[in-house]
Amino acid sequence: MKNKYKLVIIGAGPAGISTALYLNELGIKDILVVEKYKYPRYKCCAGYITDKTKKEYEKLGLSIDDCHYSLINDFKLFYKGKLKQTIVNKFLFTNRKIDRVELDYEFYKLLKKKKIKILENTYIKDNDMEKNTVLLSDDKKVNYGYLVFADGTNSFGNKYQKEYNKHLAMQMTFQSDKEDEIQIHFGYSKKGYVWISSYQGITNVGLTDVYNKSVNYQELYKKILDDNGFNVDTKELKGTFTPIGVRKPIINDNIFFVGDAVGACDPLTLSGLKYALKTGEYAALAIKNNSNKIYLKYIKKLRFKFGFMKILLKIFYLKAILFCVFEIGCRFFGKIIEFAFNNFFINKK
Ligand SMILES: Cc1cc2nc3c(=O)[nH]c(=O)nc-3n(C[C@H](O)[C@H](O)[C@H](O)COP(=O)(O)OP(=O)(O)OC[C@H]3O[C@@H](n4cnc5c(N)ncnc54)[C@H](O)[C@@H]3O)c2cc1C
Questions:
Q1: Is residue 34 in contact with ligand 1, taking CB distance under 6 Å?
Q2: How far does the centroid of ligand 1 lie from the alpha carbon of residue 77, in Å?
Q3: Would you tell me the crossing angle of helices 273-288 and 14-25 to the nearest 10 degrees?
Q4: Is the minimum distance from the CB of 37 to ligand 1 under 6 angstroms?
Q5: How many angstroms separate the first and last alpha carbons of the chain?
Q6: How much distance in Å is there from the Cα of 152 to the middle of ligand 1?
């Protein structure tokens, strides 16, 4: 293996693969991607994609039809266990396993097809910013021109960032005989929501909250299962953090952060896939053109957009607001709620 690359990318999730594919398309082929696991690998994510996210994947040559996505029509809003409104879902697509394994694997195959070098089962152990060299878990040292952290919210790249609030998100899928529908429940967690999605014999139950260490989330998760009539073992339950707010995008002029590593995940809805792909695209353009401004400009836009969503996060979960939305809004202004859900909270992501 060479010990010098123009670009080293840490993490082969959507953000890392997108960066590599865009740079490859822009003529930069001297790329090494380093991934902690071996593909196909499990990533704790419900894997929902919107129409817009679909188009971003398709721009990179991924056929979403090959990843078995469908539109589940019934989208039901619950508040404190009671059904408040049924919405006709227009834009949110679900994978047949209600997770992201298949989507990520098909995306990874594009890397292989383009012959981009990837080291799997390998992680970063150290980074020497003066010598532009990373130390990998197999004790190899690799010199880089640019380094891209695409390793998510909580991994190595996180040590260059300030400590921010985070969301905790947990999920598990299991066999069930529930009819095809997406349920979104409010009122279980203080600043988050619960999804119960069922599709052709599989159900995914997920929980999000602004992380609060005094909450016993395992117990809360079990309560959600009990309340909704699921008698299942929780040993497969997985959880991880997602970022709230945009972080430092570039350090040392040649170290970029993309995807969750830069905080590119919507703080209210937790949709991150489209932003993972877009940050990869803009980082690639900046690296190719040797102009960090291109990336900083896009990040500024995200900071503004997510700043607004952070304010909404604070307001939306106030008890009085939840009461107004679900007890008054759903009852008397159902069409407006439906429009806002489909167009503002889903299709824009
Ligand atoms: C429970 C849950 C449900 C979600 N549901 C949705 C959804 O339905 N739709 C949506 O749009 N978003 C969703 N999100 C958000 C979405 O998962 C993230 O925004 C998205 O995964 C970000 O992509 P990424 O490439 O930045 O990071 P990741 O997908 O986390 O990829 C990071 C990659 O880096 C690798 N890695 C980590 N550390 C190292 C290391 N030290 N060395 C080498 N490799 C490393 C990891 O193995 C991984 O492959 C959800 C998140 C959670 C937690």
A1: yes
A2: 26
A3: 40
A4: yes
A5: 39
A6: 5
Whether the upstream peptide bond of residue 40 has omega within 30° of 0, thus cis, is yes
- Whether residue 171 has its Cβ less than 6 Å from ligand 1: yes
Average pLDDT, rounded, for the chain: 96
In angstroms, rounded to a whole number, what is the distance separating the alpha carbons of residues 39 and 35?
9
Cβ neighbours of 317 (radius 10 Å): 19
Yes or no: say if 295 and 283 are a contact pair by the CB < 8 Å rule.
yes
Q: What is the CATH number of domain 4-346?
A: 3.50.50.60
260 Cβ inside 6 Å of ligand 1: yes
pLDDT digits 0-9 by tens, 14-70: 999 999 999 999 999 999 999 999 999 999 999 999 999 999 999 999 999 899 999
Nearest to 321 by CA among 186, 215, 183, 188: 186
- Ligand 1 center–CA 276 separation, angstroms: 9
Ordered by start, the domain boundaries in the chain are 4-346
174-218 confidence digits (pLDDT tens): 999 999 999 999 999 999 999 999 999 999 999 999 999 999 999
Within 13 A of 53's CA, how many CA atoms are on the CB side? 24
